[in-house]
User: Fold this.
Amino acid sequence: MADKDPCDLIKGPGRAYCEADNSGGGPPDTNGVGGTGGGLTHGASDHVRQLAESLIKQINSLIAPKDTWAPAKADNWVYEQFLWLGQHLAVTVFICVVVVCGLTAWQGAPRLKQMGASTGWTLAAVAGMASVPGTVMLLNKAVSNAFTAAFDSNETTLFPAINSDLKHSGNPLALLLIISALVVALAFAALVFMTRQLGILVFVCMAPLVLASLARGGDMTAVKTWAMRLLGLMFAPFALLLISPFVKLAEGSLVMDTVLLVAADALMLRMIFHGVPYFGPKVARTARTMVERNTTNPIARAVVRAGAPDFYEQENTPRLPRTMPTPGRAMSQDRGVLFAAYGVKQPQRPGRLTTESAVASARRQATEAATRNEQIRQVRQQARAAAQPQTGGTQPPNRRGQGVNPRPAPGRTGQPGGSGSTP
Assistant:
């Protein structure tokens, strides 16, 4: 029985070295140009390219996935619970409207018109509740296909351009830069994926409760607010289209591709900041804080600061940093809009800065005041120095007794030796 070949346990380029004749002829020819072709370097480059391609596929699938965590059909068990609640809520509101219209039927046409509007909008709301999951699923697939066409369709888009540059580049430093940039972009893409998927899931499940508000008479305020939040989450990936015009300029250079990926990181963080409602600013600021604590690189800090700018947690004001509401206040405001659609007026609570934001605002104001006072003091000193006479020049007239005193007139001092002062 023949002995088992020990080279069977070796995979990759090392197997060729194991199987080669040990006659001093060097490594086997892997490039077709002789025995000194450098097969290990070539194999390592292939592995780097494969790693880059896998990272690009993961980034593409995380930013705009074809499937969402939200229910795809109305018969999903999770969605069925909210659907049951929304339908019964709509019917309850409709019954209340009918009772009120019946008790005030003496008013005539206005109540009859209100009852007719409530009937129509209740039917439309119940029908719309069942169609929300399918509509969101189709819209998500359209967004995913559009994003793929914009970033991974041909050589003029970002990801294929990076793959092409990887094939034609042999610079190990450039390969290291692009791999590092892809890994960082993958981390931001994972953050986008988590926040976006959770947001879509929550807003889809809330759809029956929001649509039920139409049963009162067709008040679209809450529905419009809900639709704006959901569409903002759905179309958030298109913020990366801002870097598409620069892909052609970066063609052929992995360093420029790395710069575009860094810009994409800032845009993804900004995407979370503006696209994810309620918790988006907090999540973006948390990511910025983590980066600033773990690195001293000024470029990395500048990128996260561009993606998550400074802000105060309250309402928007003309001054900077901007003021953003806390998650509780933002949800309370939207809850007030929803209750108003049902006819329940929620009292508006006055907003104030959180303790941390108030402390930061006080420190900023104190710093700005100290800087302003110091600048004013320096300007005043310069103005006084410019107003003083130069040495050897004509002195200006004195004001309020300042400057050099004139010689006392004789006979008016009252001192001994003056005119008329001696007996």
Summary: The chain has a mean pLDDT of 76. The longest strand covers residues 311-312.
